[in-house]
Write a structure and sequence with these properties.
The chain is built from 7 helices and 6 strands, in the order H-H-H-E-E-E-H-E-H-E-E-H-H. It has helices at about 1-15, 30-55, 60-75, 110-120, 135-140, 175-220, 230-245; strands at about 80-85, 90-95, 105, 125, 150-155, 160-170. The protein is elongated.
Length: about 250
């Protein structure tokens, strides 16, 4: 948790609470703006820490991502928040969480989320009509009008992009530097959830494999050599279960 606190403090404090700035040199409006930013950063700290604690209680990405999306709405004040997961087999992005486009697939070579996934960078697009890589096909299929986009890549522990978190249409004003930092932290928590989920799946798979191998040992130990046909059938059944092959053959010499 200290790592999360350090990450929060490092950029937020230096960016919004920089004591080296001469307050007296600021105009009244600049002072009010700094106070608003400082107040928001403080509120976001509490919300982010709450998000972090809740995600820590989740055992899988399936359980954690809805929690993350819920908090993302509160933190980013966006009209839409979606998560696109990278599908390594199809080599594209599929929307797993959204109000209206779940199941939508986006090629890596298209759109802002595709750009985010391939470059691994955060994008803040205040006006999509001026963005050369914006793809309006999703809007056409969903009858929704995208005006501004903020998205961040989600990395796994190996440093590979596994998903993209996207916020669309700020409810008031535009997405700013604070939003960019906040969505980056949310994406970090999401990446941690993906990593934990993979580790859990690997552990469960290892447990299943160990159980299958134990079944093999038990079966071979209790098999009777005089019944060769039955013995071979048992070997074939066990081979299907252990190696999960499409076809198993036994050649008797």
């Amino acid at each position: 948790r200290s790592k999360m606190i350090d990450a929060l403090n490092s950029k937020a404090v230096s960016t919004f609470l920089d004591e080296s700035i001469d307050i007296e040199s600021l105009t009244p409006e600049e002072r009010r703006e700094r106070l608003r930013n400082a107040s928001r950063v403080q509120q976001d700290f509490h919300k982010l820490f709450k998000l972090f604690c809740e995600v820590e209680q989740c055992s899988s990405a399936t359980e954690a991502i809805p929690v993350i999306i819920h908090h993302a709405y509160s933190l980013l004040k966006a009209d839409r928040v979606s998560l696109f997961r990278f599908d390594p087999k199809a080599q594209d992005l599929v929307c797993d969480f959204s109000k209206d486009i779940v199941g939508t697939r986006v090629p890596l070579s298209q759109g802002i989320v595709g750009k985010c996934a391939t470059t691994g960078e955060c994008y803040n697009i205040p006006d999509v009509t001026k963005c050369t890589f914006f793809n309006g096909s999703v809007d056409q299929s969903s009858a929704y009008k995208t005006e501004s986009v903020l998205c961040a890549p989600i990395y796994n522990v190996q440093g590979h992009v596994v998903a993209v978190l996207e916020a669309i249409n700020k409810l008031e004003g535009q997405f700013d530097a604070t939003d960019e930092y906040v969505i980056g932290l949310i994406a970090f928590f999401a990446g941690d959830a993906f990593t934990k989920s993979v580790m859990l799946e690997d552990a469960q798979a290892a447990t299943r494999k160990a159980q299958r191998l134990l079944n093999v040992v038990k079966t071979l130990g209790s098999a009777r050599s005089e019944n060769l046909t039955q013995f071979i059938d048992q070997i074939v059944d066990l081979a299907y279960d252990v190696v999960e092959a499409d076809k198993v053959s036994v050649f008797v010499v």
